[in-house]
Write a structure and sequence with these properties.
Blueprint: H1 2-15, E1 38-40, H2 50-62, H3 64-84, E2 90-100, H4 107-116, E3 131-144, H5 149-215, H6 221-255, H7 268-271, E4 277-279, H8 284-287, H9 291-312, E5 317-328, E6 341-350, H10 356-424, H11 430-464
Antiparallel strand pairs: 1-4, 2-3, 3-5, 5-6
Length: about 475
């Protein structure tokens, strides 16, 4: 009878263990293969400026977002430690006390009454009524990981820990790029302010000249008004640039984790040297070094491990629960060895039967998360490739534009001198001088913008390649 009962229970357990099919994801998109190389002497050349290095060091030390990311890494590390030790048996010190009043028509009630009448027991062995229960010892529980559920959870925790590390590296790259970008913006604005101030001096000299010519009857009041209006417009532009500098300094100080204060920086001439760049293609090894791609890949690995653990939840769970200690129904007899020593062990085989809908729902959630992580990984590769390609194209185009703009500025500067000579000798009017000065100012500011765009493209390339 017992044999058939055990066989029936085992058949019920096995029959209830229908496991979902394994996860099957689509094929990964291949990164376009390039036999050409992208080489930069080293990206540190972008950040060779001593003041910029100091700002980056300050940001990496004080930035609050980066500090929060470090705490997220610590939390992920704690989860990993928890998952790594989940397969170990638990061992607890147990101290318990209780009392039971058994009814006369129960198994324990009748048994205790009959035992107390037995001549084979002494007075210490007589069972009191109500019956106390005292235990002091060790209790343990161990879930045997037959199907790899705990291993899957451990793998998921490890992948998420590594993903948090990549997330922190990604944030570090973004902070470095952000500091560098704002720094070069400030240097460019300093150059704009210098150009504007130089043009203000030229326009003041031109206004003084036309005033003298008006007094001599060689110029009209209209000419004076035109020169003065141009001067006022340029002075107003100087204040606009001054406000932009203050705004960027405050933004940079925020990234540095400190209150607003002046930003020490180099002059435009000191940093107006670009590192040597050779670009004919995008090698996959550099692209795949991006921390966001690593992070997405690790999140995908974690999601796959979650599916593995969810599938294993459909299979029977085997648990072993041993105990050992002192056990007695009288407090005074609890620690009388060896009479009060008790031990035992039990094994449990538990399989889900009526809660499989919940397990199925959890499996579907894990499965959907795995597909989401896969698509995010694919998207991060495509986006990374596009960002690198855009940065390289922008860098090349900005360099070509800079060469042309430099030539334009030189021609327009010469045009100012030519206009002054022609105006003095009577071969040009005052409007031609104003036009020449305005065109030269606009061209010089455009040249600064072009060079600023070149450095921003370099910073973007640094970020797009994952801070290599």
């Amino acid at each position: 009878m017992n044999k058939y009962f055990i066989i029936g229970c085992i058949s019920l357990v096995i029959g209830g263990c229908s496991v979902p099919k394994q996860l099957s994801l689509p094929e990964r998109a291949d990164v376009p293969v390039s036999t050409d190389t992208l080489s930069l002497d080293h990206f540190a050349a972008i950040f060779h400026d001593i003041h910029l290095k100091q700002l980056i060091d300050t940001a990496l030390k004080n930035n609050y977002d980066l500090q929060a990311a470090a705490q997220r890494v610590s939390a992920a590390q704690a989860n990993l430690m928890q998952a790594k030790n989940a397969w170990l048996p638990s061992l607890n010190v147990a101290l318990s006390a209780g009392v039971d009043k058994y009814a006369d028509y129960t198994l324990n009630g009748v048994g205790n009454f009959d035992t107390n009448l037995s001549p084979n027991i002494n007075k210490d062995q007589k069972i009191p009524d109500p019956t106390p229960e005292y235990f002091a010892g060790l209790r343990s529980s161990w879930e045997v990981d037959l199907w790899g559920k705990l291993k899957g959870q451990r793998q998921a925790a490890y992948a998420r820990f590594m993903a948090s590390m990549e997330g922190r590296r990604l944030l570090t790259t973004q902070i470095v790029a952000g500091v560098a970008g704002l720094y070069y913006e400030l240097v460019a604005l300093d150059n704009e302010a210098e150009i504007i101030n130089r043009n203000i001096e030229l326009q003041e000299a031109a206004l003084a000249t036309v005033n003298i010519q008006k007094q001599a009857g060689k110029a009209t009041e209209l000419a004076v008004q035109q020169f003065k209006a141009q001067l006022l417009s340029t002075r107003a532009l100087a204040y606009t640039v001054k406000q932009e500098i203050a705004l960027l300094e405050n933004q940079l100080n925020t990234i540095l984790g400190r209150f607003p204060q002046p930003i020490e920086r180099s002059s435009y001439k000191d940093i107006n040297v670009l590192p040597a760049l050779t670009s004919k293609g995008i090698p996959a090894r550099l692209l795949l070094n991006r921390p966001d791609i690593h992070q997405a890949e690790l999140e995908l690995a974690a999601a796959k491990a979650d599916v593995k653990a969810a599938r294993a939840s459909f299979l029977p769970t085997v648990a072993i629960t041993p105990y050992a200690g002192f056990n007695a129904f009288k407090a005074g007899l609890l620690f009388q060895s060896p009479a009060s020593i008790a031990w035992g062990v039990a094994g449990n085989l538990v399989a889900p039967v009526f809660n499989k809908k919940q397990l199925k729902a959890q499996y579907n959630i894990s499965n959907a998360n795995a597909y989401t992580a896969f698509y995010n990984y694919q998207q991060s590769i495509i986006q990374g490739y596009a960002e690198v390609a855009t940065a390289i194209n922008k860098l090349d185009n900005q360099q070509q534009t800079y060469l042309l703009k430099s030539e334009e500025v030189q021609i327009l500067r010469d045009a100012i001198s030519t206009a002054d000579i022609l105006y003095t000798t009577g071969y040009a009017n005052y409007l031609e001088i104003i036009t020449a000065q305005k065109s030269a100012l606009e061209a010089e500011l455009a040249l600064v913008t072009t060079r600023r765009g070149t450095y921003q493209a370099l910073v973007s390339l640094y970020r797009a390649l994952g801070g290599s």
